[in-house]
Amino acid sequence: MRPSPAPGTVQGFARAVAGLALLAVLSACGNVTPVGSAAVSPPSPTPTPARTDDPPPTSTSEVDVDMQDGKGEPAVVKAVNWEARDGFDRIVVDFEGDPPAYKATWVKELVQDGSGDRLDVKGGAYLEIALSRAQAHTDKGAPTWEGGPVYQTNLGNVRAVVKTGDFEGRVGIGLVLDHRAGYRLDQQTSPNQLVVDVAH
Q1: pTM above the 0.90 mark?
Q2: Does residue 165 form part of some domain?
């Protein structure tokens, strides 16, 4: 007859079996990260400005929209990004704060706000977007929209994005186009953005 195992051995074995069973259940539920592994959080969804199925814009009419009725804190421009879409180019102005007033006009050339100096950028057409009650710097003067003034693009119609100014509550953004074409502007929230689409 084989000797009976010591009571402590039996209890230890039972605890080990129970622990393994619990670990298997929790692992099946996805709540256990193995020792030595890093827990990986799923990536945050990237907000897509406006709809992705928008048709190319057709209107070339100038735009003048006052979002604040002369009130509110200045919007702070943080960045300007761009991407090619099916049939149009999309320029996205990211900002913080109250929505700025904005105006889009066709101009013969782009000039620097304040000095009036001509900006030497070649294109077939120039669309200037002026944000009012807006700034691209902190209260201490550090730029919040860095780089420039000319940002080359690789898009269908928009050749370059130009920072034409950040002066006396006005931020100027010039779009250098290959040719004049339809465009539209759309103010977005969460995140705060001004979306500019320019047809190819």
Answers
A1: no
A2: yes
Within this chain, do residues 17 and 83 fall inside the same structural domain, yes or no? Answer: no
Which pLDDT tens digits describe the chain residue by residue (200 residues)?
A: 444 444 444 444 444 444 444 444 434 443 332 332 222 323 333 345 556 678 999 999 999 998 765 567 899 999 999 999 999 999 999 999 999 999 999 999 999 988 889 999 999 999 999 999 999 999 999 999 999 899 999 899 999 999 999 999 999 999 999 999 999 999 999 899 999 999 99
Domain that holds residue 93: 63-199
Neighbour-count burial of 167, counting CB atoms closer than 10 A to its CB (0-12 exposed, 13-18 middle, 19+ buried): middle
Cβ neighbours of residue 177 closer than 8 Å, sequence gap 6 or more: 123, 124, 125, 126, 127, 157, 158, 159, 198
Fill in the amino acid letter for 47: P
Q: Are 57 and 198 in contact (CB under 8 A)?
A: yes
Q: Which residue, among 129, 132, 131, has the nearest Cα to 158 in the 3D structure?
A: 129
Question: Is the domain of 14 the same as that of 87?
Answer: no
Calpha distance 87→4 (Å, rounded): 82
What separation, in Å, do the N-terminal and C-terminal C-alpha atoms of the chain show? 91
Q: Given the DSSP bridges, would you call strands 125-132 and 134-135 parallel, antiparallel or unpaired? A: unpaired
3-state secondary structure of 102: strand
CA distance 79 to 148: 11
